[in-house]
Design a protein that fits this description.
Blueprint: H1 2-32, H2 48-73, H3 76-80, H4 86-117, H5 119-123, H6 127-150, H7 157-170, H8 185-200
Length: about 200
C-alpha cells in the first residue's frame, strides 16, 4: 500500500499537477482572464507594514522558487566539475534557503494574520484566496522544518536523491519516484504540498 501511495503521489502526481496547471491556466486565461486576479485588498487603505510585508513575501518566494529550480535541476556533474561537493552544495542551499525562507516567512506571517483577522480584508476574500495563502504558509513552514532534518546529514546524499527524483520527473524517466521512497516524511510533505499548490493555482484568483 505504501509503495502504491509513493508511486501515485511522487510518480504520477507531478504529471497530473503539471497537466492541470498548464491546461487549467490556459483555459482560465482564454475564457475568464479578467477574473484571474485576487480580490484586491491593496485598495483597503493599508498601513505601511503591509507594503513591507508584501515586498518581503514576494522577494522571498521568488528567490526560493528559482533556488529550488537551480538546486534540483542542475546536473551533479556541473557543480562537481567546479570543485563543489554535494555536501558543500547542500550547506550552501541550507544557508540560502534559510535566509530566503525567513524573509518570506516574515512577510507571509503578517499577510496571513491580516487575511484571517482583519474584518475588512476577510470580507473581501474568497474561500480560495484564504485556502491558497494558508497552503503557501504551510508549504513554507514545512520547507523551513526540513532544514533541521538536513542538519543530521550534511553529506549531500539526501539532496542528491531529491535532485535525481526531480531530474527524472522532468526527463520522463520511468520509476523516478523510487529515488525518494526512503527520504524523511517532511521532505515528502513539502513536495506533496508543492504539487497541491500547482494543482490549485488555475482555480484561484
Amino acid at each position: 500500500m505504501e509503495t502504491y501511495i509513493n508511486q501515485l503521489i511522487f510518480g504520477v502526481g507531478p504529471y497530473l499537477a503539471g497537466t492541470v496547471f498548464l491546461l487549467g491556466s490556459f483555459l482560465r486565461y482564454e475564457r475568464g482572464q479578467y477574473t484571474w486576479r485576487a480580490m484586491s485588498s491593496q485598495s483597503l487603505n493599508n498601513p505601511p507594514a503591509f507594503r513591507w510585508a508584501s515586498i518581503a513575501f514576494h522577494v522571498g518566494i521568488l528567490l526560493l522558487f528559482f533556488g529550488h529550480l537551480f538546486g534540483l535541476l542542475t546536473p551533479t556533474v556541473v557543480y562537481t566539475s567546479l570543485g563543489l561537493s554535494p555536501g558543500a552544495k547542500q550547506i550552501m542551499a541550507m544557508v540560502a534557503g534559510g535566509l530566503f525562507g525567513l524573509l518570506c516567512f516574515a512577510g507571509l506571517t503578517y499577510l496571513v494574520y491580516r487575511r484571517l483577522f482583519n474584518a475588512r480584508v476577510r470580507a473581501n476574500s474568497s474561500p480560495m484566496d484564504t485556502f491558497i495563502i494558508c497552503l503557501i504558509y504551510l508549504q513554507l513552514i514545512t520547507g523551513l522544518c526540513t532544514l533541521f532534518v538536513s542538519m543530521d546529514h550534511l553529506d549531500g546524499e539526501v539532496m542528491l536523491q531529491l535532485a535525481h527524483w526531480a531530474q527524472g520527473i522532468v526527463t520522463f524517466q520511468a520509476g523516478a519516484w523510487h529515488y525518494i521512497v526512503d527520504v524523511h516524511w517532511l521532505y515528502k510533505t513539502h513536495i506533496f504540498l508543492g504539487l497541491l499548490m500547482f494543482t490549485a493555482f488555475p482555480f484561484s484568483r
